Amino acid sequence: MSFWVKNHDGSTILEKPPRIVPLFNPGQREFLEDEHRHRIQMQKRAQQSGKNTEYYIRKQSTLDDARLLDEHDSFYKTTKSLLVLFQIMGIMPIHRNPPDNNLPRTGFSWTSRQTLYAMCVFSIETFIVAMVLRARVKNFIEQPDKHFDVAIYNIIFISLLFTHFLLPVASWRHGPEVAIFKNMWTNYQYKFWRVTGTPIVFPNLYRLTWGLCIFSWTLSVAVNVSQYYLQPDFEFWYTFAYYPIIAMLNCFCSLWYINCNAFGTVSEALARQLELTLKSDKPAEKLTEFRYLWVDLSLMMQQLGKAYSNMYGMYCLVVFFTTLTAAYGSISEIMDHGATYKEIGLFVIMFYCMSLLYIICNEAHQASCKVGLDFQTKLLNVNLIALDTASQREVQMFLLAIAKTPPIMNLDDYANINRELFSSNLTFMATYLVVLLQFKITEQRGLRENQSESNMDYGE
């Protein structure tokens, strides 16, 4: 399109159209301002090459020594028992590479011994699970006149069997992401030692990991043996299919608890070192290193959710379905025949499932608060007047990094793991439960009306 303007003498000239100012949302405007600020800093560095500058960037690191990585990998040493248990059960066949400088310490391969062993274990368990599933489905179909609570138990335990078939998709497929997460832990501890001069120590984590490994299998055995004695149609050989499934659910909860506990420990150690650094003279350059340590810790928390997204997504679905089914079955049976020991058993299943979900959501919330909110609070309470200009700017950039990289545990963009997830699950279950009970009450009302009409016809 051309823009023409006529002069007073009748001649025409070409006039440049006015510049249209684009409109940005707050997020776009903030991003452009950050990019402009960063470009100005780069220009100043270029002009002041060879001179002292007030801006600091991450130092270029050399190739890490495998021996030093192993020496400071305290997290692997303290949690090795759970990793070995996962390998024995065939849940996550990752392996430890030989100490070579050109190899990451943890790896995953579809042709490794651990993966082939996991496939063999999965094949054996699949045969047992298929036999039990066939028997339970046959029993459920051929005896439809059983009590309602017995049918609910069958539905719950049949649904648990299907979680076994999801293992290759939910766990093995994300093996490379899990290996990345483990390597991030290994590299982070070494970088923490290089920056602070002190190693990361995880007190009581070794005993806690061993205790959770033993407790996971003990609880699985206790649950299955109790079902064998409480349910008349639960045969003893069924338990061999449910032992690894219940233990796997318990181990997933233990794994999440241990990682969240470790994040909190590292955050507290980093906060202590940060306070000591702020008390020193001109801590700007050191604050830059702490800022990047914090960013690495936040990215590691995000990688945890990405690496185990399918497993914990399956976990949440199993908990939701089992809790809703058990709640409806117990309340419906109490409305029909009153409370019995079997209904108490259904309430126990509800409490068990919701306890696992609460532990996962609460630990994720606590870890996010320790890494994010607590650090923001410490930095906002810093007396900037007592610091030099470069240190003040580094504190501001630290706060900006926390705002830009929030420590959120996200299941690969499907859901955020926090207390809100637990409350939303309770809300959804309460909604579905009310709807199902409305159908149940309507059905009972119709049965009573039909019964009264039959009695009247019989009286006539």
Automatic annotation (TrEMBL):
Cell location: Cell membrane
Transmembrane stretches, start-end: 115-135, 147-167, 237-258, 312-331, 343-360
Tagged with keyword Oxidoreductase: no
Pfam family name, one: 7tm_7
Name listed for the protein in its UniProt record: Gustatory receptor
Membrane topology classification: Multi-pass membrane protein
Primary role: Gustatory receptor which mediates acceptance or avoidance behavior, depending on its substrates.
Domain of life (superkingdom): Eukaryota
InterPro entries, alphabetized: 7TM_chemorcpt
Family: Belongs to the insect chemoreceptor superfamily. Gustatory receptor (GR) family.
Keywords carried by this UniProt record: Cell membrane, Membrane, Receptor, Transducer, Transmembrane, Transmembrane helix
